Amino acid sequence: MPGESLFNALEPLLERVNKPIQYVGGELNSTVKDWHVGGHGPGGEELTTRWALMYPDAYEVGVPNQGVMILYEVLNERADALAERTYAVWPDMEAQLREAGLPQFTVDGHRAVRDFDLFGLSFSTELGYTNMLTALDLAGIPLHSVDRDVDDPIVVAGGHAAFNPEPVADFIDAAIVGDGEQAVLTVTDIVGEWKAQGRPGGRREVLLRLARTGGVYVPAFYDVSYLPDGRIQRVAPATDAPGVPWRVAKHTVMDLDAWPYPKQPLVPLAESVHERMSVEIFRGCTRGCRFCQAGMITRPVRERSITGIGEMVERGLAATGFEEVGLLSLSSADHSEIADLTKGLADRYEGTQTGLSLPSTRVDAFNIDLANELTRNGRRSGLTFAPEGGSERIRKVINKMVSEEDLIKTVAAAYGAGWRQVKLYFMCGLPTETDEDVLQIAELAKRVIETGRQVSGRRDIRCTVSIGGFVPKPHTPFQWCGQLGVEETDARLLKLREAIRADKRYGSSIGFRYHDGQPGIVEGLLSRGDRRVGRVIEAVWRDGGRFDGWSEHFSYERWMRCADEQFAAMPWDVDLAWYTTRERGETEVLPWDHLDSGLDKDWLWEDWQDALDETEVDDCRWTPCFDCGVCPQMGTEIEIGPTGKTLLPLTVLGSGRQELLEHQH
């Protein structure tokens, strides 16, 4: 029977696999609704719209994901819908499921994923694509959308990688670009109405209804033609798909206070990568870092109010029992009321073990008062800053407006206030970068250690340098640039490691962590690829590719071999380098041009030219508009405080809980 629990059949397998608890479900605040929660129509038609939501990685990585958690709760609040979660199963469980003839299942009701109406996948990184194919295959859903029938789930991609879904266009039915909260409700309405009508016109009809909204991209309704040299000539709506728009617009939720999710955050049974309750304090970023896709595609900035944040924290802590609150955003210290917010929360939870944390903090937004409020009730951990580029010149190229003196002043304040450990994050392979730019990282780290020793009077000062490889992303000014090759990246990193170790005065105090160039070049292929790259992904998966975001499972050799084989069989002269290290021209049609992030392509090109000229651009939150296109094109605007409101001086232990409840209502 559809919707039946598979747990009795799954249970014997659990003792044969590692970390069986990740497949058990039953977490605090999880939901299992009746399969027929919406009932039936007069003709027996199904009135329940059912979503299986997947973060295509291991449970420990996927369960804290805010995006999936929010959609899970938004959907389950509806009386005519249900949502359950599924995650990528490890290879040992995959083998057990195949041997037992059991499908991909949800962790909530242990129901077969194929029984659901929609299979939604949230991709924060392209390296999860092979895990999607494993899930589809285990679920019994045909890999290619063209082979699916009316009884197969509609496969929907979302998340940041969905801003260029072309590499997986053969495998998905649709993609939702941008914020998902309102979008999934619209999709639920359309699918629910189609089901209530008896599913007229079959699968094609419901996909046409979704595509005609202008906010759901259905790749099957778009034809791609190519020039003889392999570049894209045109992406156009198919002639047999009337009413399908030329461009698909991203979704933007404007009033974040109206969407205070998650209200009941999930508490994992097994250990996860983030053991905390998190609140998104604002969405979007206008700092204009040219490498940062997240900042570009989430414009404009929309702040949650200080009171809205306070209510979410209070409710979330009561619902979870967590002792740490993460104040999340792309640049949390930029919230217009961050000082009042952190002081208010620290006051409210005085006398408890509740600590506050921010993701990596901008050097120019950090101050000791802020840091002290963050650690007042919790533990004092290391501080993380992200200068991104080693030299002043390269930071101008990437528009990361942080000077070396800014960094030294900031770490001096931190070490002087009692911190012993600072982590610095940089990138290697940035446009126009030279060996000298990267070697400046070593000099900067040495200055940080020397400064820390001077202001603290101690020798046990530590600095960890963490290096990530730069991958050009769609919808950024760097979408045209050539990526640094694997050999060049590794050679540059080797020189940097030697420079750090060469000076015995500092070498033992500086930790050095880096990723080699191999995963980055594969991510680059998937980030800026077109539909032809789908054949490479499938070939890698069929060859055993799984969990490509995990170093112990990633095989560069497999990706290179499969890419060479697939590209050699194509009628165009394209290869891995063509997709990664080649620089694009201004007029080239890019695979994602028909997906509208709101950013004007001419503005992005001008910003790319500014980067080459080492010209910096200010943050438009505090300066006149730079005409990137988002606000007028999307009918949106920057929404920032200050609100002038303050947090009520309550504590979870005090008498103010009732007052807070009355304030909320």
TrEMBL record:
The record, for InterPro entries, names: CHP03960_rSAM, Elp3/MiaA/NifB-like_rSAM, Radical_SAM_N2, rSAM, rSAM_horseshoe, rSAM_sf
Entry-linked PROSITE patterns: RADICAL_SAM
Q: Tell me where on the tree of life, at the top rank, the source sits.
A: Bacteria
User: Which part of the chain is the Radical SAM core domain?
Assistant: 271-513
- Record protein name field: TIGR03960 family B12-binding radical SAM protein
